[in-house]
Amino acid sequence: AVVSTQSTGMNAIDKEETSKIYRRACMVHLVKKPYIHLSWAAFEEERGNLEIAREALDHIDKGMPGLIAVILRRAGLERRSGNVEQGGDIMKLAIENCRGRETRDFWIMKYVTYLQCSCKDVDAARNFLQEQIERNQRHKRLYARLLDLELNCGATQPDSAAIVAIFNKILTSGLSVEEKAGFSHRRLTFLEEFGDDVSAIIAAYDDHNKNWKKKKKKKKK
Prior knowledge:
The chain has about 220 residues and is mostly helical. The chain is built from 12 helices and no strands. Helix 10 runs antiparallel to helix 11 (about 175-195).
């Protein structure tokens, strides 16, 4: 568990002794135990010893690379310290170093959210997602996240033209017929809620009924 210096009422001597105990435990006895390192890092961060907190996290990250909890804590430490860009760099490096599609997807989504919410840089988040889509045009989750980004980018009214353009790109992508049919249906729902031009709504219904709805039925047969 994380030791809070505020809740325990430790004096300066107690804190220094606790820091020494943590260091000895992490550097000598429990070098492969991530949660004691996380606890040490939190203890030092709360005291304002950011360099020691970084040292604790770097030590376990080098000894056991790729641990999600450690990488998230490292990025969070930089964000809380005002080093928002460095926090993003840590997440981006996790994408580059990870193995396996599932883990890569996890870090892509985390990084996009970090750019959007912590960096307040929707353009960077959008550009990054578009780069990932260009690399893998059959990845449904990337398209879905791009749509979500545009719908929740902070504007009072979604940019209808930009979002419809994304839908149109999806419908000419390498996704399966079933996946495209699902996005076509989502396009109808979006236009009903936010569309300004009834002609565009009618055209979308015609396209869905003539193309995607029929293709999906044929595929099922």
